[in-house]
């Protein structure tokens, strides 16, 4: 987020360290003169802050650049490798973990472990084992854990959905257990949330209001709304689990106890072309309704393996005819396949953004102390 010096002068309560970090977090390479111009701080304060962040390990300086009159320009940038974040995805084949830097970029190849038993206690135990193995790998200290789960909503709360079966799971208990065991912030989300994080480009007008949609072969449909790079909750649209949105002229029973849910058509559509067509039509109408209510600038739909070009054309046709003309002029629609490990990168970016938040994250603590504290690993009993 770039703010000009005049804006900074109107907000004198913002600490100097925050101002410098805010510029560095934009991802560009800057010099001390750039920092003075973009923060409105004086030269002595900039020198002091640069030295402080360098000692803390949060700032990296490149070789001086000469060739111009005066002192050589010393490029500097944020040290994205200062800490690691761990991304974990629970999926039908098992559990995959990925180590990433604070920019959400992968540091190594993903690690995979099988998951044969989907009972709640077994899933939690397998999750703890996978996280422990990943956290024991050598490298920079860890700063947080992001977990992607195949979530579904039930009348009694959250559940894991696997092969048409539901496993109740207490998300708060899982989050608290992992956080207490390794003294790290833990963030849990679904595939649509991870997709939005993975494709969102900060400060881009196209991503100002992003509606992410995730379809799975098992019939789950998840929606996630992001406004200015942050998740938003809007009671007017089914943000979260859209699997149980009612579809007219659909009498198929659903595991939620009702009939006519969107998910039943998506599951039936694996073998029935008519049900598939009815499901895509219902999904397109649902997204058109959401677009009318929340005015997204971009819809990103991550589809299942059965998706066709004709379904893309029908989706765009419905969005164009069922939304207001003013919305249709700015709305973009991107349809993409389910790419390997995309959810993992989204989870990594989610937890990285959390720990780098200047108001509620760990970054101000790192900048103030510059000291590394290694916490002991402990086993959390499930």
Explain what the structure shows.
With 382 residues, the protein is of the alpha/beta class. It folds into 3 domains: 74 residues, Arc Repressor Mutant, subunit A, CATH 1.10.10; 139 residues, Nucleotidyltransferase, domain 5 (2-Layer Sandwich); 137 residues, 2-Layer Sandwich (Nucleotidyltransferase, domain 5), CATH 3.30.420. Helix content is 37%, strand content 21%. The chain contains 13 helices and 16 strands. The strands form 4 sheets. Strands 11, 12, 13, 14, 15 and 16 form a 6-stranded mixed sheet that branches. Strands 5-4-3-6-10 form a 5-stranded mixed sheet, with helices on both faces. The chain has a 3-stranded antiparallel sheet with strand order 7-8-9, with no helix packed on it. The N terminus and C terminus are likely disordered.
Helix content: 25-40%
Tell me the distance between the termini.
42 Å
Question: How many DSSP E strands?
Answer: 16
Quickly give the CATH architecture of the largest domain. Answer: 2-Layer Sandwich
Reconstruct the topology from this structure.
Blueprint: H1 5-9, H2 16-24, H3 32-39, H4 43-56, E1 59-61, E2 76-78, E3 84-91, E4 94-100, E5 111-114, H5 120-135, E6 142-148, E7 151-154, E8 157-162, E9 165-168, H6 171-182, E10 186-189, H7 191-199, E11 209-215, E12 221-227, E13 230-232, E14 240-241, H8 262-268, H9 273-294, E15 298-302, H10 309-322, H11 325-330, E16 332-336, H12 342-355, H13 363-369
Parallel strand pairs: 3-6, 6-10, 11-15, 15-16
Antiparallel strand pairs: 1-2, 3-4, 4-5, 7-8, 8-9, 11-12, 12-13, 12-14
Helix pairs in contact: 3-4, 7-12, 8-9, 9-10
């Amino acid at each position: 987020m770039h703010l000009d010096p005049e804006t900074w002068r109107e907000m004198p309560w913002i600490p100097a360290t925050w101002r410098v970090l805010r510029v560095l977090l934009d991802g560009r390479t800057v010099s001390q003169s750039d920092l003075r111009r973009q923060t409105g701080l004086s030269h002595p304060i900039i020198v002091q802050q640069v030295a402080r962040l360098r000692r803390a390990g949060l700032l990296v300086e490149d070789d001086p650049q000469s060739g111009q009159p005066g002192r050589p320009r010393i490029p500097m940038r944020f040290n994205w490798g200062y800490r690691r974040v761990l991304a974990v995805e629970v999926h039908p084949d098992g559990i995959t973990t990925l180590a990433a830097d604070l920019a959400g970029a992968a540091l190594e190849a993903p690690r995979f472990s099988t998951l044969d038993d989907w009972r709640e206690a077994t899933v939690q135990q397998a999750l703890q084992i996978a996280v422990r193995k990943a956290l024991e790998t050598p490298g920079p200290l860890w700063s947080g854990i992001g977990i992607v789960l195949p979530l579904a909503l039930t009348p009694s709360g959250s559940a894991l959905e696997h092969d048409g079966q539901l496993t109740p799971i207490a998300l708060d208990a899982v989050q608290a257990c992992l956080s207490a065991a390794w003294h790290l912030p833990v963030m849990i989300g679904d595939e649509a949330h991870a997709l939005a994080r993975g494709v969102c480009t900060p400060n881009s007008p196209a991503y100002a209001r992003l509606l992410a949609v995730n379809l799975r072969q098992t019939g789950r449909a998840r929606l996630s709304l992001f406004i200015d790079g942050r998740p938003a909750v809007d009671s007017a649209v089914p943000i979260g689990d859209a699997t149980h949105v009612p579809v007219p002229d659909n009498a198929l029973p659903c595991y939620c106890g009702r009939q006519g849910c969107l998910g039943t058509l998506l599951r039936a559509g694996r073998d029935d072309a008519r049900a598939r067509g009815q499901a895509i039509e219902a999904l397109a109408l649902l997204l058109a309704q959401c677009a009318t209510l929340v005015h997204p600038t971009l819809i990103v739909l991550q589809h299942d393996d059965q998706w066709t070009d004709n379904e893309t054309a029908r989706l765009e046709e419905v969005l164009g005819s069922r939304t207001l003309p003013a919305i249709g002029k700015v709305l973009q629609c991107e349809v993409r396949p389910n790419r390997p490990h995309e959810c993992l990168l989204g989870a990594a970016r989610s937890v990285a953004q959390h720990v780098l938040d200047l108001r509620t994250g760990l970054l101000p603590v790192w900048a103030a102390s510059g000291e590394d504290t290694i916490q002991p690993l402990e086993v959390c009993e499930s």
